[in-house]
């Protein structure tokens, strides 16, 4: 019963957030330059009647609230995000839709690699805190954490693609390249540097956070108990410390999703990777606001869902969370 | 963020370390000394870039050949228009640091104000404000900033200057401030919550001071140090966000920041031409600034933390 109340609260919170995003988007649409009547009003030869007719046609004669807001929310919920300015009036959903998979590929793989490597590095440095390896590891984590993603990407291109020639500099595939298995290899060769950039950019913060939670866990009584029982070091680390120290990292990974996506957008620009990031830059250059808002809405909803999933995962991993919340 | 979370735990005692005191304590640590030295050097070049490298070179005043690697005449090489990268980077310091600092000021004002009001009023106000803060904490605010910046720019026009800063840059300041206040608000709120229960605040309330006066006279002075610690981290974040926005093309070509220079390097295909020097100087400047800020922020955190532990 308690669990169900907790769940409902979480889901309700997520829905409220999405509703707030919709409201924000609605306000942005009103602020946007280039609404039909304002564009017409700039031309002195357009009559007042024509402007009034345009206002009726686009529903701008109705009050902002509730009529326009309801119309906007209704349209958005039914999957109508409006039409792209740049792509000759194509639906925003279809323009954005085809860019999702490439972005998901590099962000997803980058995040998984970063989590694995960050956890390993953080556990190691936290365990050996104060020693030489910890100093080096922590300093590298700090440096990686302080680098803008796009700069890291540019450095990797210069080194591994241009100077050493190991990997392609940009794009998602070789033009006129092979199909089948060779095609997949080609895709992975193109994806390697973008994935590495995202992973390296993220490792730093996961490692720093995990290091401090491992260091904190080391002071706990149960570690002393495990020691007293005569357990080997690696069993204490893996069986007792890590399960507890991992929790904040899970939260950070989810909370960070929005930030990671922002960084990934710029990585795509560096590598001309045809995903949402490149689309964002194109849309910015041509002031294609409907596409920009569509991207914001899509990313917001994904991030909210990611956080909800992390909450659920967290409560499975740590029962104290749901009991604490239900109390 | 993890460091700041720590601050809020021992919130009630933090005000004991005062401003001048804090600087002296910082100077006792070697890592903070190095970081402060770097920041001072950067600030100096931001204040008077002309003193070090002469006026900002433009496409018309540049004399050197394009894309020269570093040499005695051009320590950091030249860009695709033949501009000296040392010149550009030192002048970029002014833009990056001013935009970063101004954004941080707005972030702290917004976050501090909202946090204090939410924490002091409590109840529904608190619930609503923190709901909004949490939303901003989760959302991809960077994407929101990307949309807001051009909209704001078209609304106010971008042909004027205010105090020598072009309005294109001011829109960036506003946009960063509006999208990044939430974590400051959370920290300040939790501090305020514990301060509200202290006797001196209760006494002020009994004497009949208005809530605004209590916040100004009794709450604010006690969260100042926390704001300083958070402010350093916020500045680093703002500089990173500014550089990213400029890299994407929202900067001002007439007042290039480090991010703008890197954006130019990307459009000139510097990475695939192997022109590593084009990206080294501006990127290195960002890296050093952010690392220095992080080190100072961590040092303040640890000092406050120790302060808490000693007083307990």
Number of helices of chain A: 14
CATH class of chain B: Mainly Alpha
CATH architecture of one domain in chain A: Orthogonal Bundle
- What does the average pLDDT of chain A come to? 81
- CATH homologous superfamily label of chain B: MetI-like
State the total count of DSSP E strands of chain A: 0
Overall mean confidence score, pLDDT of chain B = 83
Predict the CATH topology of one domain in chain A: MetI-like fold
Return the CATH topology of chain B: MetI-like fold
What class would the helix/strand composition of chain B place it in?
Answer: mainly alpha
CATH H-level name of one domain in chain A... which superfamily? MetI-like
Quaternary structure classification? heterodimer
Biggest pleated-sheet summary of chain B:
2 strands, antiparallel
Primary descriptors:
heterodimer; A: mainly alpha; MetI-like fold; B: 312 residues; 14 helices; 2 strands; disordered N terminus
Write the layout of secondary structure elements.
The complex is a heterodimer of chains A (327) and B (312).
Chain A: H1 2-31, H2 36-41, H3 48-57, H4 64-77, H5 92-127, H6 132-146, H7 149-163, H8 180-218, H9 221-228, H10 233-255, H11 257-271, H12 276-285, H13 289-317, H14 319-326
Chain B: H1 2-9, H2 19-27, H3 30-47, H4 49-53, H5 85-121, H6 123-138, H7 141-156, E1 161-162, E2 165-166, H8 167-179, H9 182-196, H10 199-207, H11 211-250, H12 258-267, H13 270-273, H14 276-311
Antiparallel strand pairs in B: 1-2
Helix pairs in contact in B: 1-9, 1-14, 3-5, 3-14, 5-6, 5-8, 5-9, 5-11, 5-14, 6-9, 7-8, 8-11, 9-11, 10-11, 11-12, 11-14, 12-14
């Amino acid at each position: 019963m308690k669990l169900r109340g907790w769940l409902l609260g979480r889901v309700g919170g997520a829905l409220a957030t999405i509703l707030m995003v919709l409201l924000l988007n609605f306000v942005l649409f009103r602020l946007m330059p280039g609404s039909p009547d304002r564009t017409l009003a700039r031309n002195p030869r357009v009559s007042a009647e024509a402007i009034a007719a345009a206002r009726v046609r686009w529903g701008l004669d109705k009050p902002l609230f509730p009529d326009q807001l309801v119309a906007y929310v209704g349209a958005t919920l039914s999957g109508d995000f409006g039409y792209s300015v740049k792509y000759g009036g194509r639906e925003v959903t279809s323009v954005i839709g085809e860019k999702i998979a490439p972005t998901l590929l590099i962000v997803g793989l980058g995040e998984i690699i970063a989590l694995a490597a960050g956890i390993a590095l953080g556990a190691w440095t936290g365990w050996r805190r104060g020693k030489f390896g910890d100093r080096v590891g922590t300093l590298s984590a700090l440096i990686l954490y302080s680098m803008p993603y796009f700069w890291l990407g540019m450095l990797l291109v210069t080194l591994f693609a241009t100077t050493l020639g190991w990997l392609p500099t940009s794009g998602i595939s070789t033009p006129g390249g092979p199909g089948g298995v060779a095609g997949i290899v080609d895709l992975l060769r193109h994806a390697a540097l973008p994935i590495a950039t995202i992973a390296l950019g993220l490792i730093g913060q996961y490692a720093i956070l995990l290091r401090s939670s491992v260091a904190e866990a080391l002071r706990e009584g149960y570690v002393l108990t495990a020691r007293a029982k005569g357990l080997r070091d690696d069993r204490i680390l893996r069986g007792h410390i890590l399960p507890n120290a991992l929790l904040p990292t899970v939260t950070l990974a989810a909370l960070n999703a929005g930030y990671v996506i922002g960084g990934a957008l710029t990585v795509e620009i560096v590598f001309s990777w045809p995903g949402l990031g490149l689309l964002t830059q194109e849309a910015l250059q041509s002031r294609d606001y409907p596409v920009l808002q569509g991207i914001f809405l899509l990313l917001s909803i994904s991030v909210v869902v990611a956080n909800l999933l992390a909450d659920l995962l967290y409560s499975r991993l740590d029962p104290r969370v749901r009991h604490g919340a239900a109390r | 963020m993890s460091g700041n979370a720590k601050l809020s735990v021992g919130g009630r005692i933090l005000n004991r370390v005062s401003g001048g005191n804090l600087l002296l304590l910082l100077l006792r640590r070697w890592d903070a000394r190095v970081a402060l030295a770097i920041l001072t050097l950067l600030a100096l070049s931001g204040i008077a870039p002309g003193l070090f490298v002469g006026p900002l070179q433009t496409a018309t005043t540049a004399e050197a050949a394009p894309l020269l690697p570093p040499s005695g005449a051009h320590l950091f090489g030249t860009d695709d228009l033949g501009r000296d990268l040392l010149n550009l980077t030192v002048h970029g310091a002014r833009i990056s640091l001013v935009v970063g600092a101004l954004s941080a000021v707005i972030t702290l004002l917004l976050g501090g104000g909202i946090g204090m009001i939410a924490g002091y009023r409590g109840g529904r106000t608190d619930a609503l404000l923190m709901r909004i803060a949490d939303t901003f904490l989760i959302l991809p605010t960077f994407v929101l900033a990307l949309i807001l910046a051009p909209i704001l720019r078209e609304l106010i026009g971008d042909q004027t200057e205010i105090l020598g800063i072009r309005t294109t840059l001011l829109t960036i300041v506003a946009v960063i401030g509006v999208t990044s206040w939430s974590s400051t608000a959370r920290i300040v709120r939790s501090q305020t919550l514990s301060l509200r229960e202290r006797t001196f605040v209760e006494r002020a309330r009994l004497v009949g001071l208005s809530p605004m006066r209590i916040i100004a006279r009794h709450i604010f002075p006690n969260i100042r140090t926390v704001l300083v610690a958070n402010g350093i981290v916020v500045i680093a974040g703002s500089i990173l966000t500014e550089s990213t926005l400029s890299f994407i093309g929202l900067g001002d070509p007439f007042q290039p920041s480090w991010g703008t220079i890197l954006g130019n390097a990307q459009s000139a295909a510097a990475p695939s031409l192997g022109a590593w020097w084009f990206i080294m100087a501006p990127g290195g400047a960002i890296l050093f600034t952010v690392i220095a800020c992080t080190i100072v922020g961590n040092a303040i955190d640890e000092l406050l933390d120790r302060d808490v532990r000693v007083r307990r």
